[in-house]
Design a protein that fits this description.
Residues 72-129 form the Kazal-like domain. The protein is mainly alpha-helical and 307 residues long. It has 2 domains: 59-124, Wheat Germ Agglutinin (Isolectin 2), domain 1; 135-294, EF-hand (Recoverin, domain 1, Orthogonal Bundle). The chain has 11 helices and 7 strands. The protein has helices spanning 2-16, 100-109, 114-118, 135-159, 168-178, 191-200, 203-216, 244-251, 261-267, 272-282, 289-294; strands at 59-63, 69-73, 89-91, 96-97, 121-124, 224-225, 259-260. The strands form 3 sheets. Strands 4-3-5 form a 3-stranded antiparallel β-sheet. Strand 3 (89-91) and strand 4 form a beta hairpin. Helix 4 (135-159) packs across helix 5. The protein is elongated and about 75 Å long. The termini are far apart.
Length: 307
């Protein structure tokens, strides 16, 4: 009987003991081996609608309620701080602005007003005192400007050994003027002498007048000069600088605020048949206007800036 009880106890002990795995994989399986894998998801950054949306001077891009880019006037107070006097600009309202950013932002806020329509960037630097242009001076302006342009081209030709300021085609045109014995030498001539020389040597003045128009007509090259494109002519080396604005206002015969090639040539006394080829696209590209001014030996550059 005791043996039988002992036998039953042994069977019960084996039943309670953990059974050995049969056919188990010898490689231990770690907890979490079969957990759901986690994928690395790249963060998708929404493209800024303003990234490739260009706004003109004085405006900045903002996104509207539909997430569409739009240009709005920039707050002048958001313009970067300036430190030097050379960053200041002068407007046609004879007001000095801290920078071109401040100027264009202010002009934008005046859009649609008479004041804003008349406001343009005049030149780089603080506003200076400009005397009024007298009627007698206004009459002299085209004569002295023509003579000055001719002398600028001759100076560029004489100094243009390695600078390539003139193309080969331009050099040939200026060479004819340079070698002409009848050419009036540079100097402070009377109005009467300048008028006689223009009548006597008319052909010498045709290319210089075209040349200056091509220099200024750059942004864009369209056969018209805006007020801002005329800004380089308001430089200390330009003869009778204080008459520039009044002269070209008188040249704008159709009052569209632009000087067409025909209006420009007519103001300088160039006949229509002489400027038709240039209007058809014969006006070449030229060096910056300030290079022409510097060629005369002056120390101060033309102060134009595009609008």
């Amino acid at each position: 009987m005791r043996a039988w009880i002992f036998f039953l106890l042994c069977l019960a002990g084996k039943a309670l003991a953990a059974p050995e795995p049969v056919g188990a994989n010898p490689v231990q399986v770690e907890v979490g081996e079969f957990e759901e894998p986690t994928e690395d998801v790249e963060e998708i950054v929404a493209e800024n609608p303003c990234q490739n949306h260009h706004c003109k001077h004085g405006k900045v891009c903002e996104v509207d309620d539909n997430n569409s880019p739009m240009c709005v006037c920039q707050d002048p107070s958001s313009c970067p701080a300036t430190s030097g006097v050379f960053e200041k600009v002068c407007g046609t309202d004879n007001k000095t602005y801290d920078s071109s950013c401040h100027f264009f932002a202010t002009k934008c806020t005046l859009e649609g007003t008479k004041k804003g329509h008349k406001l343009h960037l005049d030149y780089i630097g603080p506003c200076k005192f400009i005397p009024a242009c007298l009627d007698t001076e206004l009459t002299e302006f085209p004569l002295r400007m023509r003579d000055w342009l001719k002398n600028v081209l001759i100076t560029l030709y004489e100094r243009d050994e390695d600078n390539n300021l003139l193309t080969e085609k331009q050099k040939l045109k200026v060479k004819k003027i340079h070698e002409n014995e009848k050419r009036l030498e540079a100097g402070d001539h009377t109005v009467e002498l300048l008028a006689r020389d223009f009548e006597k040597n008319y052909n010498m003045y045709i290319f210089p007048v075209h040349w200056q128009f091509g220099q200024l007509d750059q942004h864009p090259i369209d056969g018209y000069l805006s007020h801002t494109e005329l800004a380089p002519l308001r430089a200390p080396l330009i003869p009778m600088e204080h008459c520039t604005t009044r002269f070209f206002e008188a040249c704008d015969l159709d009052n569209d605020k632009y000087i067409a090639l025909e209006e420009w040539a007519s103001c300088f006394g160039i006949k229509e048949r002489e400027y038709l080829p240039a209007r058809a696209g014969d006006t070449p590209k030229f060096p910056p206007p300030r290079d022409a001014a510097m060629a005369l030996g002056g120390g101060e550059q033309g102060r134009g800036m595009r609008e």
